[in-house]
Design a protein that fits this description.
Layout lengths: L1 H39 L12 H8 L6 E3 L20 E8 L2 E8 L10 H17 L3 E7 L8 H17 L5 E10 L4 H5 L2 E5 L4 E3 L3 H8 L5 H5 L1 H6 L6 E3 L2 H12 L38 H6 L8 E3 L7 E8 L2 E8 L10 H16 L4 E7 L6 H5 L2 H14 L4 E10 H6 L9 E4 L4 E3 L3 H8 L1 H6 L3 H15 L4 H5 L5 E2 L5 H11 L18
Helix pairs in contact: 3-4, 11-13, 15-17
Length: about 525
C-alpha cells in the first residue's frame, strides 16, 4: 500500500505541475511579447520618406532571412536614473543576400538621433566580431548624429573600438557602408575605412565638421550639401563610391555589389553560368586614327565582358580612369581602364588614388585584374606637383606591383612614359600582356619626341614644318607601334581587336591556378 500511495502521490504531483505549467508559461510568453513589442517600437517620428531601421534591413536582405541580435539590449540609464532606450538606437543581426550570409547593422535615427551610446557601440562591435568569426560580409546602414554627448567618453571609446574592428576586418571580409542620412564627426571615419560607401542623392551627408561649426571657427559659409552631400562625396572628394537616387536604389546597389564578391578572403569569388559572347567585330574600327580624337573606353569594355555589364566604382570621381566589376565567362574580374573621353585618359592624383585602392581591394579578395591602357602619361603641372603627384601617383605603381592575383593587360592605343609602366605593364608583374595594332608604346608621343630629339635641326631647317612631318612619320613607324615591345617580350601578343575577348578568356583560364608567394613581412609601406 505504501508503494501504491507513493506512486499515487508522485503521479498527483506530476498532474498538478502539468496543470499549472501552462499558466506560468503563458504569463512568461506574454511578458516576452510585451518586451518584444516595446523593443520593436520606434523611438520617435521619422523623417519624411525614410524607412525605419528594420524596414531598411528587410529591403536589403532576402525575404524572412533576418535574425536580430541584441534585441533586448538596453541603453545605459541617464544621469537622472531614467530608463535607457530599448535597443539603444541600432538594430543588428544577420541574414542572407541571394542565399549568401551577410551581417548587417542599421542605425535608428528615432532614438537619440541615431547617435552612438555605450550599448549601441557594444552591439555594433559584437556584430563585427561575429562577421569576422563566421567570415561573411558586413553591411552598415548609417543614419546617425555621431557620438552621444550625454554618455561622454564611453561613446568615444566605442567609436575607436569600431574602427579597430574595421581595420581588423580590412582585406578579410568585404565591408560596405550605406549612408542614408547624416554621418558626422567621428562617425564618418568608420565608412572611410570600409571598402565601399553608398550615398543617397539629396538625403545623405558625411563630414567631420558641420556648417555651423565651420562658420563659427573659420567664417566660411557652406551648406551641408556643399560640405559632404552625396554628390560632393561622389564627385569632388571621392569619399563615396556610389550615388543612389533613393534608399531602395542604394540597397539594390549593395545587393548588386555583393553578387561580385566572395564572402571572405579565403573563398573564391562566386561563379555564374557563362553567357554568350557579345558582338566583337565593332572593336576593329573603334579606335580613331587621330590620337587627339576621343572615344568611350566603356564601348570596348562592354564588348569584352559578359552581357556588356559593368558595375562602375567611383563613376563620378576621377572620370579619366574607369574602375569596374564585371564578369568574364561567369567569373568576376576587376577592370581598370583609362578613359580617353576625359582629359585624354591622363593619370592625375585622383585617378591614381582611385585606381590604386580598387586594385588593392581586388587583390585582397582574389579578383583577377583586367587592365585596358590608353594613357598619355602622368599629368604635369605646378598644381599636380605641389599637391604630391610623385608620392600619390606612386600608389598605383605600388598597388599593381604588390598584387598577386591574375593580371591581364591590353594596350589599346597610346601607352607613353610612366603611364605605360604603371598601367599593368609586364615590368610590374602582369602575367599576360596583349596589344592592338593601334598601340603606340613609347617614352612619349611622336610630336614631343621629335621636338626634343631634333630641336636644333628643326630650328635650322628652311622648311621646318615639312621636316617635322617627315621626322614624326619616321618616329611613328619605328617607336609608335607595339612591335618593339613585342620583340622584347614585353607584350605577349599583338592581336586583332575583334579577338580581344577570346584572348582574355584564354589568359584568365590559364591563370586560374596562379600562385605568387610574397616575402615574409609585417606589411609593406605604401606611400600614403
Amino acid at each position: 500500500m505504501a508503494v501504491t500511495r507513493e506512486a499515487t502521490t508522485s503521479r498527483g504531483r506530476e498532474s498538478v505541475t502539468a496543470a499549472r505549467a501552462p499558466d506560468g508559461t503563458a504569463a512568461r510568453l506574454a511578458g516576452l511579447e510585451r518586451r518584444r513589442s516595446r523593443a520593436l517600437a520606434p523611438g520617435g517620428p521619422r523623417r519624411r520618406g525614410e524607412h525605419g531601421a528594420r524596414e531598411r534591413i528587410n529591403l536589403l536582405l532576402d525575404v524572412d532571412s533576418f535574425t536580430e541580435t541584441g534585441l533586448f539590449v538596453r541603453g545605459r540609464p541617464g544621469a537622472d536614473g531614467a530608463r535607457g532606450p530599448d535597443g539603444d538606437g541600432v538594430v543588428t543581426g544577420y541574414g542572407t543576400v541571394d542565399g549568401r550570409p551577410v551581417c548587417v547593422f542599421a542605425q535608428d535615427s528615432t532614438v537619440f538621433g541615431g547617435s552612438m551610446g555605450e550599448a549601441f557601440g557594444e552591439k555594433t562591435v559584437a556584430l563585427m566580431d561575429l562577421a569576422l568569426k563566421t567570415g561573411c560580409p558586413v553591411v552598415g546602414l548609417n543614419d546617425g548624429g555621431g557620438a552621444r554627448i550625454q554618455e561622454g567618453v564611453s561613446s568615444l571609446a566605442l567609436y575607436a573600438e569600431l574602427v579597430r574592428r574595421n581595420v581588423r576586418a580590412s582585406g578579410v571580409i568585404p565591408q560596405i557602408s550605406v549612408v542614408l542620412g547624416p554621418c558626422a564627426g567621428g562617425a564618418a571615419y568608420s565608412p572611410a575605412i570600409t571598402d565601399f560607401t553608398v550615398m543617397v542623392d539629396g538625403a545623405s551627408h558625411m563630414f567631420v565638421t558641420g556648417p555651423d561649426v565651420i562658420e563659427a571657427v573659420t567664417g566660411e559659409r557652406a551648406t551641408a550639401e556643399d560640405l559632404g552631400g552625396a554628390r560632393t562625396s561622389n564627385s569632388v572628394n571621392g569619399n563615396a563610391h556610389f550615388l543612389a537616387v533613393d534608399e531602395v536604389d542604394a540597397l539594390d546597389t549593395v545587393r548588386d555589389l555583393l553578387s561580385y564578391l566572395p564572402a571572405n578572403n579565403r573563398e573564391q569569388p562566386p561563379r555564374y553560368a557563362p553567357t554568350a559572347a557579345p558582338p566583337a567585330a565593332v572593336l576593329d574600327g573603334i579606335v580613331p586614327d587621330r590620337l587627339a580624337q576621343a572615344y568611350d573606353m566603356r564601348d570596348i569594355l562592354r564588348a569584352v565582358v559578359d552581357d556588356g555589364e559593368l558595375l562602375e566604382i567611383h563613376e563620378l570621381f576621377a572620370p579619366n580612369i574607369v574602375c569596374a566589376l564585371a564578369l568574364v565567362e561567369g567569373a568576376p574580374v576587376g577592370v581598370v581602364a583609362n578613359q580617353p573621353l576625359h582629359a585624354a585618359g591622363v593619370l592625375d592624383i585622383d585617378a591614381s588614388e582611385k585606381a590604386a585602392r580598387f586594385v588593392r581591394f581586388c587583390d585582397a579578395f582574389g579578383i583577377p585584374l583586367l587592365t585596358f591602357a590608353d594613357v598619355p602619361g602622368y599629368l604635369s603641372g605646378v598644381r599636380q606637383e605641389q599637391a604630391g603627384i610623385i608620392r600619390r601617383g606612386a600608389k598605383l605603381l605600388y598597388a599593381y606591383a604588390e598584387a598577386t592575383v591574375p593580371k591581364v593587360t591590353v594596350v589599346v592605343r597610346k601607352a607613353y612614359g610612366g603611364g605605360y609602366a604603371v598601367m599593368g605593364s609586364k615590368h610590374l608583374g602582369a602575367d599576360i600582356n596583349l596589344a592592338w595594332p593601334t598601340a603606340r608604346i613609347a617614352v612619349m608621343g611622336a610630336e614631343g619626341a621629335v621636338g626634343v630629339l631634333h630641336r636644333r635641326e628643326l630650328a635650322a631647317a628652311d622648311d621646318p614644318d615639312a621636316l617635322r612631318a617627315r621626322l614624326v612619320a619616321a618616329y611613328e613607324s619605328t617607336h609608335g607601334t607595339p612591335y618593339p615591345a613585342a620583340e622584347r617580350g614585353y607584350v605577349d601578343a599583338v592581336i586583332a581587336p575583334r579577338d580581344t575577348r577570346a584572348h582574355v578568356c584564354r589568359a584568365l583560364r590559364a591563370l586560374r591556378g596562379k600562385r605568387a608567394p610574397m616575402p615574409e613581412r609585417r606589411h609593406g609601406n605604401i606611400p600614403l
